[in-house]
Amino acid sequence: MKIKNTDILVLGGGAAGFFAAVSAANQRPGTHITLLEKSARFLAKVKVSGGGRCNVTCGEDDPKTLAGYYPRGGRMLSRLYFEFGPREVKHWFESRGVRLKTEADGRVFPVTDSSQTIIECLTREAVRQNIDCIPGADAIQINPSESGFEIQLRDGELIRASKVIVATGGSPKKEGLIWLKNLGHEITEPVPSLFTFNSPGHSICKLMGVSVPQALVKIAGTKYEYAGPLLITHWGLSGPAVLKLSAFAARDLAEIQYNFTVLINWNGYSRSEWEKSLDKMMSEHPKKQLDNISFCGLPSSLWKFILSETGISNTLQAGQLGPKQYNKLLENLSGFTLPIKGKTTFKEEFVTAGGVSLDSINPKTMESKTCPGLFFAGEILDLDGITGGYNFQAAWTTGYIAGKNAVIQFVENE
Ligand SMILES: Cc1cc2nc3c(=O)[nH]c(=O)nc-3n(C[C@H](O)[C@H](O)[C@H](O)COP(=O)(O)OP(=O)(O)OC[C@H]3O[C@@H](n4cnc5c(N)ncnc54)[C@H](O)[C@@H]3O)c2cc1C
Fold first, then answer.
1. Which of 109, 145, 288, 336 is 20 to 30 A removed from 10 (C-alpha atoms)?
2. Residue 165: CB within 6 Å of ligand 1?
3. Domain-by-domain residue ranges, the chain?
């Protein structure tokens, strides 16, 4: 069995692990830093992120506003963003030659539109800082020792380190985190976040590809409701409003095995606004067939679908709408009922909610409360954001803070 020594050992070669390693190295050049990645490839998620373009962070800079984009961990992150937030991340990459652009919706990408640009930047930085990056190294156990830690790898190798930063990403199952629970950390049950809603066999799926810019989507019987673009797919619903709902309701939806009902207000109008619009349509076009009317900017196929679901003939004239039909139409415009059975992974981005509880760490340093000298960064922690670059931002920030604080302990002893 080979035994190796290092000052700082980073477990996990993803966004958080790389950023922790290079941040530690930047703080104290000459520190021996080793980064272990269990798979053959470093930064694999960065590669596929944002549809291959890597939505590296967001345009928003106000820490308090940013907190609202994290269903879990927002409070802690907003404090850390005063020290190292999106502005600092953009500066970090730009000062290392990565040109970034902010799109109209606030998402930030490299101008190359290629995640490879981010991978190359982080890899260059790791090489420049002499970080020992080892692929195919799966850490299975951390044992505190007199001089720090002994880390057991699956292949039998043992590594001694003064400090350890765990950045092994989200674990889909609680059992995957037992090695950290054994060190006294509280583990919050992992559940998926950022998914789309399935409505198998429902006639709405025939409208796949149709979208509305400002729907209000509610989960019936709960407090969860979000407004934003909504996309109808061949399996059900997607789009920002649905992804946001899936993130904020992630834990509750897991409990009911993703069987629930959504209520869709197609334009997010109040009931009286819909009434006014219907009254206007009836008085302005009493003789026009309903299917020939462009109503409230709704896509024509969606308008015809709503009429048909209401049991109203497309050929009926607007002025002939009876009171019962009128009321039912009003219901289907302001709260269309759609049964949801199951979820589908959103291919652009998905994350795990849950993991190492934030109660188990010092929120200013990312250091374990039960195991001094051990730090955490990234998705392994019980924090996650909605789509828009917020998850990488959390990984860069917690990586930076963990790296900096791990190395500070060497500086303090000098
Ligand atoms: C398809 C997809 C697209 C995404 N797109 C975006 C986006 O555009 N913008 C955004 O903000 N977020 C995006 N995300 C979310 C983002 O990728 C994650 O939040 C982020 O990668 C978390 O970084 P991490 O370093 O904590 O974890 P990871 O990236 O998961 O890295 C952890 C690493 O640790 C390794 N590891 C695990 N266990 C061990 C072990 N025991 N020993 C050694 N190594 C280990 C893993 O193999 C992995 O490489 C996307 C996610 C997915 C799945």
1. 109
2. no
3. 3-192+348-412, 195-345
What distance in angstroms lies between residue 14's CA and the mean position of ligand 1's atoms?
5
Q: How far is the CA of 389 from the centre of ligand 1 (A)?
A: 13
The residue whose C-alpha atom lies closest to atom 51 belonging to ligand 1 is 349
Separation CA 166–CA 403 (nearest Å):
11
Instruction: Tell me the mean pLDDT in the region 225-244.
Output: 96
Query: CA-to-CA distance for 261 and 221, rounded, in angstroms?
Result: 9
Convert the pLDDT of each residue in 260-313 to its tens digit. Answer: 999 999 999 999 999 999 999 999 999 999 999 999 999 999 999 999 999 999
Pocket test for ligand 1, best of 19, 151, 349 (most atoms within 8 A of CB): 349
Torsion angle of the four alpha carbons 32, 377, 114, 66, in this order, in degrees rounded to the nearest 10:
-140
pTM of the model: 0.95
Structure tokens at 147: 């001089």
> In angstroms, what CA-CA distances link 104 with 108, 195, 216, 297?
9, 23, 21, 22
Q: Is 38 in the pocket of ligand 1 (CB under 6 A)?
A: yes
Residue of the CA atom closest to atom 19 of ligand 1: 391
Closest CA to ligand 1's atom 8? 50
Alpha carbon of 175 to those of 52, 184, 189, 264, 380: distances in Å? 31, 15, 10, 37, 13
The mean predicted confidence, pLDDT, of the chain is 96
Atom of ligand 1 nearest to the CA of 11: 43
Considering the segment(s) 3-192+348-412 as one domain, its CATH architecture is 3-Layer(bba) Sandwich (3.50)
